[in-house]
Write a structure and sequence with these properties.
Length: 271
């Protein structure tokens, strides 16, 4: 079910909520992007039909903007492509008997490039901790390099890059601490040892298999983005199956009880 809590006009809403088929096929276990997300959430999403998932249109807006940017970049480069180049290339490969799919934005002469759209505050956050970009982007691109190697039977990748587009970059803030120094920034990513990446994929598949057979009841603490008030941001704001998640429902009722107790024990001011 798609809600529209912030009254996005119908004209735009129709385009945002349009259901796009991702072309993965039936025999796909999961995508590289899925592997970067919590196994338990993936399992619930897999088992919950689209019409039973709850998501607000404002949460689809970012994906809509991202798709529009990708489409524009694709159309710009499509006509200039040489034979050895690949745009929006999808590769499926088997690991531990499971098919993993990955679609990367751009490949040419050994260079894999992925486009990312994000907020400047997100990059600022990573800059502050000296990471410059999220680790999951590094892992994702290394997985693409491995998929390419497996599909061609030989390592082809020499460089990995992400091009990050900050959708809300503001020149007036350029002197703020850790503020990105431009609206579009390119980062080079280290190409890891292929065995290391393959081990990571296989370990993730094991965790996803456990979730699939019901051994995992909720996401791990590090996966749910707990804020300083103890609130699980991912569960509350970025999970369309939170109403189906037993662990989160228990967590919410405990929080409610604690809040109730706190209110009852707070001394009343009598004037
Ligand atoms: S509600 Fe939270 S714990 Fe449950 S699946 Fe969603 S993100 Fe994971």
């Amino acid at each position: 079910m798609i809600t529209n809590l912030f009254n996005i006009p119908q004209q735009v809403l129709d385009s945002i909520v349009e259901d796009k088929y991702d072309g993965r096929g039936e025999d796909i276990f999961c995508s590289v992007t899925d592997l970067l997300n919590p196994p338990h959430q993936w399992n619930l999403l897999k088992k919950t039909p689209k019409h039973e998932q709850i998501i607000d249109a404002k949460d689809l807006l970012k994906a809509w903007i991202r798709t529009a940017i990708h489409k524009s970049l694709y159309e710009t480069h499509r006509d200039n492509f040489k034979d050895e180049m690949a745009l929006e290339l999808r590769i499926n490969e088997k690991f531990s008997g499971k098919t993993i799919t990955g679609q990367f934005d751009y490949y040419q002469d050994g260079v894999i490039i992925d486009y990312k759209t994000t907020s400047t505050s997100n990059l600022q956050h990573y800059n502050k901790f000296g990471n410059t970009i999220p680790t999951k982007w590094e892992v994702q691109l290394n997985c693409y390099a491995l998929l390419l190697k497996k599909s061609k039977g030989t390592p082809l990748t020499t460089e990995l890059r992400v091009i990050v587009i900050c959708t809300d970059w503001d020149e007036k803030k350029i002197f703020e601490d850790h503020y990105p120094q431009g609206p579009v920034i390119e980062y080079n990513i280290e190409l890891n040892n292929y065995d290391k990446t393959e081990r990571w994929i296989i370990e993730r598949i094991e965790l996803f298999n456990k979730a699939l057979i019901g051994e995992t009841k909720e996401c791990e603490a590090k996966e749910v983005w707990i804020n300083k008030h103890g609130v699980r941001t991912r569960c509350g704001n970025y999970c369309s199956v939170s109403h189906k998640c037993e662990g989160y429902q228990i967590h919410k009722s405990v929080l409610k009880k604690e809040l109730r107790t706190h209110i009852d024990q707070t001394p009343k001011i009598i004037d």
